[in-house]
Backbone:
């Protein structure tokens, strides 16, 4: 082959018959809607950075016993290691996304981390 570059082509044949044609009556949507469109149709929020932050924040609150258990039996059980993990994940996102966030995203992340850290300290003191 020498210095000559060889390339390759990837062809997605999912949803095609043996000749590479879509089955009769099939449309481009037969493979399913885009993930985002499906989420919105199901009443879910847009999958964006803010939603990710809020999801991780809710997870931390749940593990701090600040959110009701889905079973309806009152507050969730305090699990400090899992709460710390969720807060740590937010800290990683803060570091890795520095310079790439909007002012609103930065404000949300900063206030969320401040609040969760304070709640974590309070929960740690109560557990002692």
Residues:
């Amino acid at each position: 082959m020498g210095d000559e570059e060889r390339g390759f082509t990837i062809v997605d044949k999912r949803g095609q018959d043996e000749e590479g044609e879509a089955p009769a009556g099939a449309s481009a949507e037969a493979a399913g809607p885009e993930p985002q469109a499906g989420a919105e149709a199901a009443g879910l929020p847009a999958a964006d950075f803010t939603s990710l932050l809020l999801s991780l924040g809710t997870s931390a609150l749940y593990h701090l016993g600040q959110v009701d258990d889905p079973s309806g039996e009152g507050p969730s059980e305090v699990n400090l290691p899992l709460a710390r993990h969720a807060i740590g994940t937010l800290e990683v996102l803060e570091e890795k996304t520095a310079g790439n966030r909007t002012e609103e995203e930065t404000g949300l992340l900063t206030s969320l981390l401040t609040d969760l850290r304070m709640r974590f300290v309070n929960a740690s003191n109560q557990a002692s």
